[in-house]
Amino acid sequence: MRFDDAYSGKVFIMAQPDYQQARAVLYGMPMDWTVSFRPGSRFGPNRIREASIGLEEYSPYLDKHLEEVAYFDAGDIPLPFGNAERSLAEIKQYIDKLLEDNKFPLGLGGEHLVTWPVIQAIYQKYSDLKVIHIDAHADLREEYEGEVLSHSTPVRKICNLIGAENVYSFGIRSGMREEFAFAKESGMHMSRYQVAKPLAECLPSLTGANVYITIDIDVLDPAYAPGTGTAEAGGISSTELLEAIHTLAKADLNIVGADLVEVAPAYDPTEQTAIAASKFIREMLLGWIK
Description:
This protein is an alpha/beta fold. The protein has one domain (about 25-290): Arginase, Chain A. The protein is built from eight helices and ten strands. It has helices at about 45-50, 85-100, 115-125, 155-160, 175-185, 195-200, 240-250, 270-290; strands spanning about 25-30, 60, 65, 70-75, 105-110, 130-135, 165-170, 190, 210-215, 255-260. It is globular. The model has no long low-confidence stretch (mean pLDDT about 95). This is Agmatinase. GO terms for molecular function: agmatinase activity; metal ion binding. InterPro entries: Agmatinase-rel (IPR005925), Ureohydrolase (IPR006035), Ureohydrolase_dom_sf (IPR023696), Ureohydrolase_Mn_BS (IPR020855).
């Protein structure tokens, strides 16, 4: 695991060279071994880093500059190609080390299954953990065509681990009938189609909570983010997702980690998806790391 020195490859704009002095660590999880439609999200983390070069370091939304945030870009975790079980185990080991060093983990996916081992690690440290999930898809399946390790299952696994009542999903517009029935019957919070408004309404009930936030880029309408493996029509705009990120930044929460997943560059020759993702990461760095 690469922790002691600055990553020698591509880095997110203004990442600092010293892991020890960093408050947050940006890292990639280049895995797309279980996707059910279009692969390629393993190339997302580095393309997001490349797109960040076109960003301004200053956020007019938050009136903050990236020089104010001490974060280290550790590069991508070297995962065993095609082996989902081992990859998930290595991600968890990686996050265990970050948490041991008191770092804020900010992950770049990769398919959405990579969130599962991160939550396993963070739940060991924060037993009262809440999870905010922003996505087009419910991800509440128990298996996909007999495979329990699937990018359509991470939120169901998280519900089983931390309690469904501690999971809050927003923007959902796709899933099996059984997934929506589970959400209704289990006590989890699910808001369909929209993100910013229902999120703002929900946040007072989470005051002071330890919260992990996972964002699937396909919550955006394909008009704003065509570069993803399972695009779903009828999504939100980039403006609404930015509003949600800023609402979370201003809320009375203890955000303990986050990720942004499912950017698949091959399906977006204009790179608008990676460009949008890099801006979201900038706002997350500036708004969520205290």
